[in-house]
C-alpha cells in the first residue's frame, strides 16, 4: 500500500470541504438505500464525520500496533448503530468512488492501495464485532438526578438497567431520544459503585446538539442509551506511585473518577488535583471538590483562575500553577481538558522533569463524535 499517495489522495477530496462528504453520502444512499436508516434524520451534524474518520483511520494502516486496538473498539462500538458485516463493503465502495471523483490522478494502483487498506480495516472491525456478539450493543440507563450547575454545565447521575462495567477515567458514548441516532462521548466522573450509578459532566456547546439537549432539556426519568466504555486515560494497574491530576473544564470528570477510585480501592497514595478555569464562577463542581478534600487527608485540591484578577484563588494558567507546586518528577501524571490547556500543561511538565512515559492526556473538544487515533475524546 502506498500510504503517502493515499494521504495525498484524501487531502484532495478534503480540500473540497462539504462537497466531498455530500458526494460520499449521496453515493452511499443511492447505491445502498438500506444504509440510510443507520443515520440521523438530519445530516447537518453528521455530514463530515464518517467520511473524515474513514480517511483518518485508513491512513494509519502502516502503524497497526497503534491502529488495531482502536479498530477493535470501533467494531464493537458500531454495533450500537445497527451496523452489520454487510454494510462494510457498501461504505468502502462509496469511499473509493468519492476519492476517485475528486482526484484527477486516480489510477489502478491508488485504487488497489485504498481497497487493500479498507479491507484490512473492515476485517478487524468485523472480527471484533463478532467476538462481542454475546454482549449488548448498548445499555439503557435512567437519569436519576439532573443538576444545572452553571448556565451551560449540568451534572447528570444515571443508573444503567443492567450491569455496566467500566474503568475509572473511561468515557461512554450516549444517545438520547431528544437527539436520536446522534451519539456523543462523555467521561464518567466516578469509579464503579455497587449501585452502578454513573456521574456525567456535560457542557452545552455552540453547535453541539446532544450536549445542549442534555443540559437544557433532559430530565429525571429520561432513559439514555450507553455505548461500550473506552479510553486510554486510565490508572496504570502496575503502579502505586502518587498522582498529579490537572484538569480544565469538564476534563475534571475522568480525574475525579480516579480520586474516587483511590478512595474506594487504593492503593494508598498522595493525590494532588489542580483544576483551572478562566473565572471563579466557572467552577461548577466546587462544593463536591471541597467535600472530597475535607474527607481525604491524602488529597489536595487547588483551584486557579487565568482571567479573574478579583478572585482570591491562585492566579495563572493551570499548567503554570501546577509547576509552582512541584516538583512532580516521581508522579504518574494525568491531564484532561481543552486542547490548548492539555498541550501547554504537558509541555511545561516535561520541561520541569516529568517523565513522558508517565504522562497520560486527553483532549475534550467539540469537533468529533468519538475517539481519534490518539484516543482523544470529544464533547
Which structural traits does this protein have?
7-stranded parallel sheet, 20% strand, Elongation Factor Tu (Ef-tu), domain 3, 379 residues, Rossmann fold, alpha/beta, 37% helix, globular, single chain, 11 helices, disordered C terminus, Globin-like, 6-stranded antiparallel sheet
Tell me, rounded to a whole number, the average pLDDT: 89
CATH superfamily of the largest domain: Nucleotide-binding domain of ferredoxin-NADP reductase (FNR) module
State the low-pLDDT regions, or none: 366-379
Helix content: 25-40%
Q: Domains counted in the coordinates: how many?
A: 3
Q: Helix count? A: 11
At the first level of CATH, the class of the largest domain is Alpha Beta
Spatial gap, N to C terminus: 34 Å
Largest sheet: 7 strands, parallel
Global morphology: globular
The ordered string of helix (H) and strand (E) elements is: HHHHHHEEEEEHEEHEHEEHEHEE
Query: By helix and strand content, what is the structural category?
Result: alpha/beta
How large, in whole angstroms, is the Cα Rg? 22 Å
Strand content: 15-25%
The spatial strand order of the largest sheet comes to 10-9-8-7-11-12-13
CATH architecture group name of the largest domain: 3-Layer(aba) Sandwich
CATH topology of the largest domain: Rossmann fold
Oligomeric organization of the protein chains: single chain
Count of DSSP strands: 13
Amino acid at each position: 500500500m502506498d500510504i503517502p499517495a493515499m494521504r495525498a489522495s484524501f487531502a484532495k477530496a478534503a480540500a473540497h470541504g462539504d462537497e466531498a462528504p455530500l458526494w460520499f453520502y449521496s453515493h452511499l444512499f443511492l447505491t445502498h438505500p438500506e444504509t440510510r436508516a443507520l443515520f440521523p434524520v438530519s445530516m447537518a451534524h453528521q455530514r463530515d464525520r464518517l467520511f473524515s474518520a474513514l480517511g483518518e483511520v485508513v491512513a494509519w494502516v502502516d502503524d497497526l500496533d497503534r491502529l488495531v486496538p482502536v479498530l477493535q473498539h470501533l467494531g464493537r462500538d458500531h454495533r450500537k448503530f445497527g451496523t452489520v458485516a454487510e454494510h462494510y463493503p457498501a461504505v468502502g465502495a462509496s469511499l473509493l468512488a468519492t476519492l476517485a471523483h475528486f482526484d484527477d490522478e486516480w489510477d489502478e494502483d491508488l485504487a488497489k492501495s485504498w481497497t487493500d487498506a479498507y479491507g484490512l480495516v473492515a476485517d478487524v472491525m468485523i472480527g471484533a464485532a463478532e467476538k462481542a456478539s454475546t454482549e449488548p450493543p448498548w445499555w439503557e440507563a435512567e437519569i436519576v438526578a439532573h443538576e444545572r450547575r452553571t448556565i451551560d454545565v449540568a451534572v447528570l447521575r444515571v443508573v444503567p438497567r443492567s450491569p455496566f462495567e467500566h474503568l475509572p477515567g473511561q468515557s461512554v458514548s450516549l444517545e438520547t431520544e431528544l437527539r436520536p441516532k446522534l451519539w456523543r462521548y462523555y467521561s464518567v466522573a466516578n469509579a464503579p459503585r455497587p449501585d452502578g450509578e454513573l456521574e456525567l459532566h456535560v457542557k452545552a456547546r455552540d453547535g453541539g446538539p446532544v450536549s445542549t439537549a442534555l443540559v437544557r432539556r433532559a430530565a429525571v426519568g429520561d432513559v439514555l442509551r450507553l455505548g461500550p466504555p473506552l479510553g486510554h486515560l486510565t490508572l496504570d494497574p502496575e503502579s502505586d506511585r502518587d498522582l498529579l491530576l490537572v484538569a480544565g473544564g469538564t476534563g475534571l470528570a475522568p480525574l475525579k473518577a480516579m480520586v474516587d477510585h483511590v478512595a474506594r480501592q487504593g492503593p494508598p497514595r498522595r493525590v494532588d488535583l489542580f483544576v483551572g478555569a478562566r473565572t471563579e464562577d466557572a467552577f461548577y463542581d466546587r462544593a463536591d471538590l471541597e467535600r472530597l478534600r475535607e474527607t481525604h487527608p491524602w488529597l489536595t485540591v487547588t483551584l486557579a483562575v487565568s482571567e479573574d484578577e478579583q478572585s482570591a484563588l491562585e492566579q495563572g494558567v493551570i499548567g503554570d500553577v501546577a509547576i509552582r507546586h512541584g516538583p512532580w518528577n516521581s508522579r504518574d501524571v494525568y491531564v484532561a481538558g481543552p486542547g490548548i490547556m492539555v498541550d501547554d500543561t504537558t509541555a511545561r511538565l516535561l520541561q520541569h522533569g516529568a517523565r513522558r512515559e508517565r504522562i497520560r492526556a486527553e483532549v475534550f473538544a467539540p469537533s468529533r463524535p468519538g475517539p481519534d487515533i490518539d484516543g482523544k475524546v470529544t464533547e
